Amino acid sequence: MIELKFCISNIAWEAKDDESVYRLMRSNGYEGLEIAPTRVWDNPYGQGHSDYAHFKQQLNRYGIELTAMQSLLYREESLQLFHDESSRREMLAALEKRAVLAEMLGIRSMVFGLPKNRSYSGIDNREAFEIAADFFRQAGEMAEAYHTAFCIEAVPESYGTNFINSTAEALELVKHVGCEGFRLHLDTGTIIGNKENLSVIAAAAGYISHVHISEPFLDIPVSQGVHAAVGRELRETGYTGFISIEMKRRHDSEPLTYLESVLGHVREWYA
Questions:
Q1: Per the database entry, which stretches of residues form a coiled coil (predicted)?
Q2: pLDDT tens per residue, the chain (271 residues)?
Q3: What are phi and psi of 180, to 5 degrees?
Q4: Radius of gyration of the chain (CA)
């Protein structure tokens, strides 16, 4: 039976707690770290090579590898997928900077969620799909050149987007684009929020590059039954990538206590 590899996103705690969380990760068998680049650096795409190397060395001391990036266009809502060709060119140029960073850090998966950057109006669903497919084919080919991949995340309508709201829709887009640099990101928060049938995981076998263990609106993972079932499906499909806890930061007097609890519960559910 395939053993899943565990990871957590650094949006779940403050920078001052990094070292303490890394120790918790190591003691709980978490080998991967997902990052929001702006959580690590104020200007993540303009650092010197030594800054990136120092960050990797810090993680290496704890036996942690960088596995994924998220929040790719944080606070860059002017970059819109469906506005016009000019906006798409600007978005593609911005995403190339992310791909450059991913290559330098050894990151293989970049999660494309970004609900505020991907809503459309004035065109029908099919036209939106073809515009996006053309864009992501270009983005995927570019990502391949940097030895990484953009991973489309299905985002429910409740997050404020009308494009790719279900895992099945995301899978359809990935298959249509047909590029190794454009893969599927599986999100349990979407599965739970949409009440999706878990058969979608088997249907997506071979296309999934990254997985988020999450709840709707990034609450603490609590849906034990669903998570355990997702874990079984992933193992049965032969998934060998990382599964990453994605949860929002809690303003708690003892943040490390609840983080340690979450790390333990998730590992138990997905064992």
A1: none
A2: 678 999 999 999 999 999 999 999 999 999 999 999 999 999 999 877 789 999 999 999 999 999 999 999 999 999 999 999 999 999 999 999 999 999 999 999 999 999 999 999 999 999 999 999 999 999 999 999 999 999 999 999 999 999 999 999 999 999 999 999 999 999 999 999 999 999 999 999 999 999 999 999 999 999 999 999 999 999 999 999 999 999 999 887 788 999 999 999 999 999 8
A3: -65, -20
A4: 18
Q: Could you state, in order of their start, the residue ranges of all structural domains in the chain?
A: 5-269
Q: Which class does domain 5-269 fall in?
A: alpha beta
> Which position has the token pair 């800054």?
51
Alpha-carbon distance of 92 to 227, in angstroms, equals: 34
Q: How far, in Å, are 128, 149, 162, 196 from residue 142 at the CA level?
A: 21, 9, 26, 32
